[in-house]
Amino acid sequence: MRSSGxxxxxxxxxxxxxxxxxxxxxxxxxxxxxxxxxxxxxxxIDRYQQWLASGEGTTVPATGNLLVRDGRQYTAxxxxxxxxxxxxxxxxxxxxxxxxxxxxxKGFWLTYSATADLHVQLRPASAWSGGDKWLTxxxxxxxxxxxxxxxxxxxxxxxxxxxxxxxxxxxxATKEAxxxxxxxxxxxxxxxxxxxxxxxxxxxx
Length: 205
What we know:
CATH superfamily: Galactose-binding domain-like
Distance between the termini: 22 Å
CATH topology: Jelly Rolls
Helix content: under 10%
Number of strands: 14
Oligomer: single chain
C-alpha cells in the first residue's frame, strides 16, 4: 500500500472513531480490523497465522499459538503474570525460516488492547536470539481496543539498557525482518485483533 493510501485509511478512521493520541483511533467491537484480502485456510489474523507464547516469563497460555475464535474472526489473547520479562512472538512470514523485507515500508497498523505498557522488537533473521534488539513502545490502552500506527522510521526505535544495545543497524532489522517480538516486564492482559504492514502481505502456510 502506498503512503497516500495509508493517509486515506487514517483519515477514514479518524472520522469514524475518537482519536486517543497521535496515530491512535478507538475502534468498535463490531469492526475491529479491516481485512485486506482473504484470510488463510487455517486460523489467522490478517493472514498472520503464528502468534506464539514462547514460554519465556509466566504467561497464560504458557506456550503455543494464541489464536482463539472470536465470532467470525480470530484474536490472539495472552496474559502476562508477575514482574518478570514475558515474550510473545509473531512470525511475519508465517514460518520461522522465512523473513520479510520491510526496508521500504512506512510502518504498520496494530489493532490491540493492553492493560499496561509493553514494547515490540523487530528481530532480523541474522540476529534473532537475545534481547538486544531495536524496539518501540506499545502504550497501554487501559483495556480499550484501539488501532495505532507504528512508524518504521529509525528515529522511532530505540533499545533498553536492561536488554542490551543491538549490534546490528536498524536497517538490518527492516531488511531481514523475521518477526515482531512483544516483550513486557509487568502484568498485562493483551488481545491482538489486527495487523496491517505497509507494503507487505504475508503468505499463508
